[in-house]
Design brief:
The protein is α+β, with helices and mostly antiparallel strands. Strands 5, 6, 9, 10, 14 and 17 form a six-stranded antiparallel sheet that branches. Helix 1 (about 5-25) runs antiparallel to helix 3 (about 200-235). The radius of gyration is 25 Å and the shape is elongated. The protein has two domains: about 5-60 and about 195-235, no CATH class; about 65-190, no CATH class. It has helices at about 5-25, 45, 200-235, and strands at about 35-40, 55-60, 65, 75, 80-85, 90-95, 100, 105, 115, 120, 135, 140-145, 145-150, 155, 160-165, 170, 180, 185-190, 190.
């Protein structure tokens, strides 16, 4: 008796991948600016005759803004990403939790310099010490009342051309370039929370587990059928 379990196995692999994705979403519920992920696949197009192509889909919807009172915390209300300078070139993030380096440069938590329209943002005032820092809604950077730079806010026509590379940073796919945009929705002293609904994620996790249990039952049923067939043949 020939029993083909390939469809069930492939369905189980999809569910396992989805479990990892949901678990990662829940693990990042308190990560500033994190964007939830999901998996998409097309059974109708590929069928079960070959491995299902799984595509990661990032939900770029706005997260809530939370007041921190920290003048080095910035949030973007609306489109766009903060632009940072890294050893890999320009990278992009929605995490506006920044600090000032010993050299007086605004940096992210991983030492990448935050870029303005005039290059890396230096906030040293008179005497070579950091001055009073203010950010306007347009992203203008003021030190001791003087405009010294402007946050470089970059947006992309298709945000799904951005790849997550870790540390809440995004890198555009090859050949994809962003565009500097004017923003009037930069908020100082706030951070954007993750756009994750924990209740929805838990419901998805429970539903996924039920589907996985169903595939296991199908496997056990096929196994029983195969065992019965072998025993019946042995009795002939």
């Amino acid at each position: 008796m020939d029993i083909d379990l390939s469809a069930v196995v492939k369905a189980s692999n999809v569910l396992l991948a989805k479990n990892d994705m949901i678990s990662n979403n829940l693990a990042n519920i308190n990560t500033t600016g994190f964007k939830r992920d999901d998996l998409v696949f097309d059974v109708l197009e590929s069928g079960f005759n070959e491995d299902l192509p799984l595509d990661q889909y990032t939900d770029f919807n706005q997260g809530d803004l939370k007041s921190t009172g920290n003048l080095l915390d910035f949030a973007i209300s609306g489109d766009g990403f903060f632009t940072v300078e890294s050893p890999e070139g320009q990278l992009f993030t929605r995490n506006g939790h920044f600090s000032i380096s010993d050299e007086g440069m605004i940096e992210d938590s991983f030492g990448n310099r935050v870029l303005g329209t005039n290059g890396p943002i230096e906030v040293l005032g008179q005497g070579g010490v950091p001055g009073e820092l203010r950010i306007t809604e347009k992203g203008e950077v003021l030190v001791d009342g003087d405009i010294i730079n402007k946050l470089l806010i970059t947006d992309f026509e298709d945000k799904h051309e951005l790849e997550k590379i870790g540390n809440n940073l995004y890198k555009p796919n090859d050949g994809i370039t962003g565009e500097a945009i004017d923003s009037n929705k930069i908020v100082q002293g706030y951070l954007e929370t993750a756009n994750i609904n924990p209740v929805s994620e838990m419901v998805n996790l429970i539903d996924m587990h039920r589907q996985f249990e169903a595939t296991q039952k199908i496997m056990r049923t096929f196994d029983e059928i195969a065992n019965n067939a072998i025993n019946e043949v042995g009795d002939v």
